[in-house]
Every structure is written in structure tokens, then in C-alpha cells.
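Query form — protein HTH-type transcriptional regulator YkvN

QUESTION: What is the three-dimensional structure of this chain?
INPUT:
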Amino acid sequence: MVSHNTGINIFVNTVGGKWKGLILYFLSQQSIRTKDFYPLIPGITQKVLTDQLKQLERDGLVQRELFPEVPPRVEYSLTDLGQSFVPILNIMCEWGNTYALARDIEKDGQIRCSHEAKKA
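ANSWER: The C-alpha cells for HTH-type transcriptional regulator YkvN are given below.
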């Protein structure tokens, strides 16, 4: 009998889902305040964003920093473990670009792989 607690299942359970990849991608670029995710990820709801950030924080990929200001300011950034995921994000981005080209899928030009953004 094969265990379902395998590396690939752990990976998919941790970073799978509709928005986690984009959240991690944007956090790989810089720390982000909660409200600043909405223009970056149109269509994400407050509840879903909050849930996804909490899950990523619980899983040790994202850290939440609360600044004692009025009004309070919250910023999210990648942990060291989250930073270790950046090369995987780049590979996923490159594969997505290759797949889009092979399947003639029109991409949103706003998102670039990390190494592409540095070249531009």
C-alpha cells in the first residue's frame, strides 16, 4: 500500500490552490501589505486572501508582521523556508510560459518569471 504522505502530496497540499502560487510569487518580489494584494490579484476576495495567507503562515512559508501604528499596519513576507521555494516558482513560471506557447494560450503580460523581471 502506498502512503499518501509523499513528497508530491505534501507539496501540492502546501502550495496548491488557485491563489497560493500568485501570493508566493508577489511576496518573492517584496513584502506586501494586505490591502496591496487586491490590485495584484484581481478577483480574490478578502476571506480567501485571509485564509490563504493564514495557511501559508501556518505552513511556515509566510510571516506576518504587525506594526504598532494607528491604524495598525500588517505586512507579509516570505520566511527563509518560503524563500527556498522561489527557485521552484521560477521553474513553474518557465514551464507555464512553455506550455502557453505550445498550446497557443494567451498570457497576461503583467506576470514575469523572477529572472525575466531582473533582465527587463
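ADDITIONAL NOTE: The radius of gyration is 16 Å.
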